[in-house]
Amino acid sequence: MLRYLRPLFGRLLLPLGRLLARLGVTPTMVTLTGALGVVASALVFYPRGELFTGSVAVTVFVLLDMLDGAVARASGSTTKWGAFLDSTLDRLSDAAILSGLVLWSFGGGENPALGYLTLFCLVSGFGVSYIKARAEGLGANCDVGIAERSERLVIVLVAVGLGGLGVPYILPAGLGVLALISGITIVQRLIETRNRLTSPRRTADDSGAV
What number is the average pLDDT over the span 105-134? Predict the structure, then answer.
């Protein structure tokens, strides 16, 4: 859903991307800094129960990571390798965020039920991303689903941040919503991929029929 706002964000970030490009900053530098910042923030703050501080730090580095595309466009250095690296590090960043929550839930948070819910969100998040990547690797467009990465990040960071401020029930509620929409998105993408890979037209094309 938030993907429809990406062109707007791209235009807003382009001037800053041009500035960074003139300063000699490369897209890879931005990508690595953003990803390492997210991973470090999540795995340092969350396990210690510093949920609000951790969410603020993670959000800062997530926003920084959004600049890599702007820098690439400004410097004319958009490459397939850059897109691959960005996508791969996004998966690792997402895993670090939820892993930090898992460590806190089973440790100082003393909430195993929340830990298991977070584990489900972690696994289902990988499922959402993998299904799309695998489908597109087979030539089937799978750009469907109600829970893309942007939506999942917003939900988890808002829920964890407000939970860290003491807002009651917001953290389990947010993770519950995240688990639900991730599960729905997995089903949506499985159905979409099945329809595209088994459609009569595609079957005929794959067999070489005219």
Answer: 94
Considering the candidates 90, 143, 205, 206, report the single residue annotated as catalytic.
90
Mean pLDDT value across residues 102-124? 95
The rounded distance, in Å, linking the Cα atoms of 117 and 194 is 28
Give whole-number Cα distances, 51 to 42, 65, 133, 171, 181, in Å: 9, 21, 31, 10, 23
In the predicted structure, residue 210 carries a pLDDT above the cut 90:
no
Binding-site positions = 65, 68-69, 73, 79, 86, 90
Domain ranges of the chain: 2-198
Q: Which residues are annotated as a binding site for a CDP-1,2-diacyl-sn-glycerol?
A: 69, 73, 79
pLDDT digits (tens, 9 = 90+) for 176-193: 999 999 999 999 999 999
Q: Is 206 a catalytic residue?
A: no
To 10 degrees, the CA torsion angle through 65, 56, 173, 66?
-10
Binding residues for Mg(2+): 65, 68, 86, 90
Q: Which CATH architecture group holds 2-198? A: Up-down Bundle (1.20)
pLDDT at 206 over 60: no
Q: What is the mean pLDDT of residues 29-48?
A: 95
